[in-house]
Amino acid sequence: MKQPDFKELDRNVARARILLSLLAMLSLYIDPTVAGGLFHLNTLALVILLCHLAYSLALYAALRRQFALGRLPTVSTALDLFFATAIAFLTEGQTSPSYVFFVFAIIAVGIRAGLRPTIEVTLCSVVLYLLVIALSDGMTNYYMMRAVYLAIAGYLIGFVGQQRGAFEARMHELELSAERHTIARSLHDGYVQALAGVNLRLETCRELLVRGRTADALAQVTDLQRGVAREYDEVREYIRSLAGMQESGSRQLSTVVSDPLLEVQVRFSARSLGGEQILQIMLEGLRNARRHAMAHLVTIKAWEGGDKVRITIDDDGIGFAAAEKPPWAIASRVAEFGGSLTMNRNGSGHLTIEIPKL
Question: Do 225 and 323 share a domain, yes or no?
Fold first, then answer.
């Protein structure tokens, strides 16, 4: 199943981390019970909070620029626990914000991962918090209960995160099932019925030919050809809509099919899968020139150049319009195999394609 995209979620968590850092700094500044007194911050605590704020801002900036940080969740969780422990050690007391930092670290994992990672982070948080209490003066049962509350909160967050993930997976399955049902119904009610009609018309043409009524059979075949062309255009448009593509307004789908002269110059070697894709691209280029370009001559060349195969497709037809996008069927194949495609809009159709040898 396709993995969910956490980019926006990570950015929201990063914003919340910045807000947490600022609010913690403010609360400690105005809290008279914390070391340093009212409107004053312990120097070491201030340094730690400023470092946390810098880390939060840097992480948010990296997410905004979409840097490739594959180990971002692990690194950010480790840093969240480190700062929570440091703040707890420096500001421990009844009004210390350190407890919120531990809860934040658990929530950041719980909303992104399943139950097991959340439980692991919760256990780390409890152990670190108990260690801070053990190393601090004035250890009390009140502080010990905070660790218990932290464990309960971590379990609940992990459970809710697991249920959310299962719910999203189920919703994704239902959406895919509904989409498949819609496509199947559309094919059955539209194009399958059209094919059945074509079959009946062909049967009629066969009977007319058997009876020697060639003129009537030719009229039927001509009319059938126009009908098939219309159905082809509708199927093509439907397929492009499924792929999220739209036909360019500058070129209308044409039912006029030309029969251009074909010139092919091919010399390359590739594995069977890659070679099949290259041949399919060349075939699709020929089809486009025949169906849409009204060309008289189509020239296709393919040759090796280093670790790539270069393909050029030229025709003397109507060419590409200024705002027209590359042919979707060709562009999608090229993109799938990590190639490149360029168009020349100089009044004739020209495509230049490069595909890595597979």
Answer: no
